[in-house]
């Protein structure tokens, strides 16, 4: 089963033919909302809105463990596509660019970031050299191309704590560190998916220039972000439908 986690602006998949909703109880508390089961491109898909269906949960309060656990054990998902909005640091990723990142730098703090917190008396170090699933990334990129959409193959995603946006100096530092895009929800989600042995990849939509860059030189304007999201997420939905339709039955 394919799972899709929708970020800001993607609290539902308009093209998902919904069959049922299910509230999954987890050992880690409540997921962001009920899981929505349905078919997309004729294939079974489970959808979860990361910030809740009414977009009420800020990035630092998302129960990432419950979400991943619910998808793995409640829905029996094998792969997860995360859709997330990001700010563009690199100047060839202007608002409206779709990106499938290949690396992560984690700047978040105070989030519970593991299923293995010592309670069950064993310590686990999962390999995270390549944080995203290589096969899932390449098949996503192929589908984007087949659907006639441009997509950037590879970027370093900086996961910041939020919910405030960054300062211009913080963005300069992220760039010096090697980051290309910045978002608030990529971690610990990707790390937990790895611990749960789920194939996980992200489709990121650049919705604004990062603080201090381009037309965000003096500030970031949310009205502009929402307009970009509305237009581009419709295209992401279409590509996801193609992706699902191409999965083996
Ligand atoms: N910074 C962090 N997260 C974001 C941004 C940003 O500029 N845009 C969308 N998500």
Helical content (DSSP H or I, runs of 4+): 25-40%
Which CATH C-level class is it? Answer: Alpha Beta
- What is the overall silhouette? globular
The CATH H-level superfamily is: Nucleoside phosphorylase domain
The pLDDT mean sits at 94
- What is the gyration radius calculated from CA atoms? 17 Å
Order of helices and strands: EEEEHEEEHEEHEHEH
**What is the fold-level CATH name, i.e. the topology?**
Rossmann fold
Structural class: alpha/beta
What does this structure look like?
The protein is of the alpha/beta class and 249 residues long. It has a single domain, classed as Nucleoside phosphorylase domain (Rossmann fold, 3-Layer(aba) Sandwich). It contains five helices and eleven strands. It has helices spanning 64-74, 134-146, 168-177, 189-195, 222-245, and strands spanning 2-6, 17-22, 35-40, 43-49, 79-88, 98-100, 103-106, 152-153, 156-159, 181-183, 199-209. Strands 1, 2, 3, 4, 5, 6, 7, 8, 9, 10 and 11 form an eleven-stranded mixed beta sheet that branches. The longest helix has 24 residues, at 222-245. The protein is globular. The mean pLDDT is 94. Hypoxanthine (HPA) binds at residues 85-87, 160, 165-166, 182-184, 207-208, 210.
């Amino acid at each position: 089963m394919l799972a899709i986690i929708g970020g800001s602006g993607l609290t539902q998949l308009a093209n998902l033919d919904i069959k049922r909703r299910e509230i999954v109880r987890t050992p880690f508390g409540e997921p962001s909302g009920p899981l929505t089961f349905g078919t997309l491109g004729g294939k079974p898909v489970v959808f979860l809105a990361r910030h809740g269906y009414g977009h009420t949960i800020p990035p630092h309060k998302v129960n990432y463990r419950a979400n991943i656990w619910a998808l793995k054990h409640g829905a029996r998902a094998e792969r997860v596509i995360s859709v997330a909005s990001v700010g563009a640091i690199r100047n060839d990723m202007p608002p409206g660019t779709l990106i499938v990142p290949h690396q992560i730098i984690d700047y978040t703090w105070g989030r519970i970031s593991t299923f293995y917190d010592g309670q069950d008396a064993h310590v686990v170090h999962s390999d995270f050299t390549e944080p995203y699933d290589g096969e899932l990334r390449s098949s996503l990129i192929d589908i984007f191309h087949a659907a006639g959409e441009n997509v950037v193959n590879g970027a370093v995603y900086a996961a910041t704590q939020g919910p405030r946006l960054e300062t211009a100096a913080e963005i300069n530092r992220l760039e010096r560190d090697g980051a290309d895009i910045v978002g608030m929800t990529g971690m610990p989600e990707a790390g937990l998916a790895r611990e749960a042995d789920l194939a996980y990849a992200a489709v990121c939509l650049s919705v604004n220039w990062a603080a201090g860059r381009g037309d965000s030189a003096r500030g970031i304007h949310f009205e502009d972000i929402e307009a970009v999201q509305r237009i581009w997420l419709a295209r992401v939905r279409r590509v996801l439908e193609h992706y699902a339709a191409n999965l083996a039955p």
